[in-house]
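Exercise 7.
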Amino acid sequence: IVQVEGRACDQIQDGSGFVAAPGVVVTNAHVVAGEDDTSVITADGTTLAARVVRFDPRRDLAVLRVPGLRAAALPIGIGTAGTTGAVYGHPGGGPLLASPARIAERITARGTDIYRTSTTERDVFVLAASLAPGDSGAPLVNASGQVVGVAFAIDPGNATTAYALTDAEL
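Solution. The predicted structure, written as tokens, is:
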């Protein structure tokens, strides 16, 4: 799990991401949107330059190429309602924290892309979890250590409800 950081619109954007393959990190598109320079900060505090190689504003997913990243990839699994685990992220741009999570249900979310310019549908897990800004892009990991989703939003009306893109979207 890594921290993802960059500057856009004269402010620092912080998020989280995970290693999906050697030198490859997955995060949310809204974490890196508008950035000229993106960095990944590893568990040991090393800052590495990252380049966005795939960007999907409709799905809210981005893939980063990170030369020099030596961390092992996390395996991908399948999530279902009732799956328990944790979201591993960097809330507030701080240290890595594990937030306990349970998949409450799987829904088709209808909304807009990250720019609010076109409509989209996404396969989403509704999570019983307390997340914070900075957890965007963090992996939802099951008890077997497999990534089953990618956190992307917090319910503004309920601090103990969050949302993750499903393994199918990933």
